[in-house]
Amino acid sequence: MKPFALALFALVTLAPPPVWAKPPATEAPRRDPDEARLQEALVLIASGRVTEAMPLLDRIVTAKTKEYAGEKRRIYCARSMAETLAYMTMAAAAREDAVAMPPVLADAIFYKGFVLVDLHRDDEAEAAFRRAITLSPSHARYLAELGELYKRRRDWPTALATFQRADEAAALSPDDHRVFEQTRAWRGIGFVMIEQGRLEEAQGWFEKSLALDPNDAKARAEIDYIRQQRAKAAPPA
């Protein structure tokens, strides 16, 4: 997504501006009922009631898919202007007409994947994550969760490549999400490198995470683990 100056030039010169449906200024903003349903689903997920969340998520996906059915342009879901610019630039480079929509549809699909992982339905979860990423290719959390799925499968090359994509995408994360999403990607990279025997490189990623978030207990624990492994491998004095 770099450099941004080039991205902005491409957006202005080659692509139509993103369309966000807004009511006239004289009308009070209308709340999207699907956003309220998504929040309700997230409360259920947070409380461990994942099977109750699934019908709500399905309802959102069905409603939004129907709402967008007549759209001929490539649909992206963006949660920030930075992501919108990135997606419109992608579309411009591909000579596609595109439109940026709010993230409700992609979020609902992503959280379906999240629930499916919890239900040990990993193949369906992978399909959901991939569909969400198709709508939001530079969403760092979506990418990291897909990387986590590959990590559990011990598919180290694919996991590493996916976490690296999440690392790049975190540059576009909203300010209030960036630290969480950036460190999530870095820890994923570091974990895979441990499994590949690349301990020195792995430690560097965890140290980066601690530098950005000194309270990152997971990164600190991984550094301790690396030190223990090195101590075991060291020849006796």
Secondary structure: helix percent = 55-70%
How many DSSP H or I helices? Answer: 11
Strand segment count: 2
- Determine Rg (CA atoms, Å): 20 Å
Characterize the overall form.
globular
Mean pLDDT: 89
SSE sequence, one letter per element: HHHEHEHHHHHHH
| Strand ordering within the main sheet | 1-2
Low-pLDDT stretches: 1-26
Keywords: Repeat, Signal, TPR repeat
TPR repeats: 106-139, 183-216
Organism: Alterirhizorhabdus solaris
Pfam families: TPR_16, TPR_2
Protein model, in words:
This protein is mostly helical. It folds into two domains: 127 residues, no CATH class; 99 residues, Alpha Horseshoe (Serine Threonine Protein Phosphatase 5, Tetratricopeptide repeat). It contains eleven helices and two strands. A two-stranded parallel ribbon has the order 1-2. The protein is globular and about 70 Å long. This is Tetratricopeptide repeat protein.
Overview in brief:
With 237 residues, the chain is mainly alpha-helical. The chain is 69% helix and 3% strand.
What order do the helices and strands come in, and which of them pair?
Elements: H1 4-14, H2 33-46, H3 50-67, E1 74-77, H4 81-93, E2 98-101, H5 104-118, H6 122-135, H7 140-152, H8 156-169, H9 175-195, H10 199-212, H11 217-233
Key phrases:
2 domains, 11 helices, disordered N terminus, mainly alpha, Serine Threonine Protein Phosphatase 5, Tetratricopeptide repeat, 237 residues
